[in-house]
């Protein structure tokens, strides 16, 4: 059984700091030891994703509220970030600042999540407003970049607002020397009204090429793409650095890692962003899941 890294006492102290010393967040951000670059000891970038709760997406595996317990989530995040080969985290301001107050981000690559307005399961899900970090806040906090989700629904006119906002964000980030991480999908609503991402090779290629052309420059744009059939063809569609999306918790972890390993062999792929598969693996061993992923890198 792994040692608990974040206890209820730790969370109690964290809340007390937020109440009595809210300025401590900015102080710690200003003094945080910075990473030396965007890739670590493996020569690639491995980030743990923890931006799901802000979209109301709390499911991991069979547990619909797995990410709803903040103490348990922080414990798993701190344990994952402590493993060799883990370069940093992707999160919303609340999660990033919790980790900052817990002292877990020294020397880590931190990418802030920017648009979280397209809440899961809502009528306005495609209209993905920027309700998290913006470029000035990311720069002020000393973070390394900003991530945006771009779901392109050919039948939903709200798509164009998100498309335009992402384009502006890419330029704003580049102007401040920050990475723009764009996660694009072609998406449609199914018969029940639920938004579904099209994971066909053709759709992923189309989404990737649209995302690559956003903004006034692509100099600092990285793409975050799902691992799908025909991945070699997908990766041939861009010269931008690609980070693989870890996706849902797979029942067959061995098959999932084999697919990751094959994709990582391509020169365009510069790392991975993995959330639930590392934080809530079958069997619950966070450290083992992280170490197995680092080995692939």
Report on the structure:
The protein has 297 residues and is of the alpha/beta class. The protein has one domain: Alpha-Beta Barrel (TIM Barrel), CATH 3.20.20.70. It contains eleven helices and nine strands. Strands 1-2-3-4-5-7-8-9 form an eight-stranded parallel beta barrel, surrounded by five helices. The two termini are 26 Å apart. The mean pLDDT is 94.
Number of domains: 1
According to CATH, the fold-level topology is TIM Barrel
Mean pLDDT: 94
Order of helices and strands: HHEHEHEHEHEEHEHEHEHH
Structural class, judged by helices and strands?
Answer: alpha/beta
Specify the biggest β-sheet.
8 strands, parallel, barrel
State Rg.
Answer: 18 Å
Overall body shape: globular
> Going across the major beta sheet, what is the strand order?
1-2-3-4-5-7-8-9
CATH class: Alpha Beta
Q: Residue ranges: pLDDT <50 for 5 or more in a row?
A: none
What is the H level of CATH, i.e. the homologous superfamily? Aldolase class I
Helical content band? 25-40%
Q: Number of helix segments?
A: 11
Q: What percentage of the residues does DSSP assign to strands (E)?
A: 15-25%
Question: Gap between N and C termini, in Å?
Answer: 26 Å
By CATH, the architecture is named Alpha-Beta Barrel
